[in-house]
Design a protein that fits this description.
Layout: H1 6-15, E1 17-20, H2 26-41, H3 57-60, H4 63-66, E2 72-76, H5 88-93, H6 97-105, E3 106-111, H7 113-116, H8 118-124, H9 127-135, E4 141-149, E5 159-162, H10 164-167, E6 176-181, E7 192-194, E8 205-209, E9 223-227, E10 238-240, E11 247-251, E12 256-258, E13 269-276
Antiparallel strand pairs: 1-11, 2-3, 3-4, 4-13, 5-12, 6-11, 6-13, 7-10, 7-12, 8-9
The structure holds fe (ii) ion (FE2).
Length: 298
Amino acid sequence: MGVLDAAQLNAYERDGYLVVEDFVSTDACRAMVERSHEIVSAFDPDEHRSVFTTEEQERTSDEYFLSSGDKTRFFFEPEAFLPDGTLRQAKELGLDQARYATWHAINKLGHAMHDTDPVMRSFSRTSELASVASEVGLVDPLLLQSMYIFKNPRIGGEVTCHQDSTFLYTDPLTCTGFWFALEDATLENGCLWAIPGGHRSGLRKKFVRNVDVTDLDSNQAGTHFEVFGEDISGDGAVPLEARAGTLVVLNGLVPHLSGANRSDKSRHAYSLHVIDAGAEYPANNWLQRPTEFPLTGF
Ligand code: FE2
């Protein structure tokens, strides 16, 4: 017997997304949150100051971002820094810079914790999730990419409306997102929003490297969008408020977004993107895996 029933599968087919409450335990969520703090606590914010924003990624793509496909890397909120490079809120609040970065200025970790971190690896590889992946149509799943998203209080940035297949393209399209609320996601702290049925309107654009990269050491930085259609505004999106432990399954074509977090509560989430091994993974996708560290399934 599967994890999802016929009504859930029909809803996924109809809407392009599915909200599954109580999919993971609060203990599992807590273990992930604690692990995220450990990882960030061990990070020196002076090591690298890469910023993540969906709007600016084309301009700000750098080697640190482009070579994160097999690593755990740290991306800051766009509003994290003052022009002189100090952490804005740390200065305003009179906090130690390094400690401040740990708790408040990081946007996300990316993009291979499902392979590089033991706690996130086991969170990502459960029999229940493998079953859901199979039930929504992934025949030979490969765990491609993971993100630990902090959406920290007051500074957590918005994610503009997009389709995940723009960033994780395969031919045919197989990208499927598994988004986990590790803390309660509400209207106030920047929950997900999605456009019901929006997965039927085709892929609007593709985020690719400027040069096909077969030699990852060649450091061919730079990316652009190949545009096939109009941008999606987010009109018609509905909020997907989610208690901690909720799984949201997202078809790679369904347009979705999340608001900024101006509240005083964080909104930690973990997302895992899975593709099918039977589909072609182009050499100009921004995200590449070195051949010595191949993708694997559940
Ligand atoms: Fe997304």
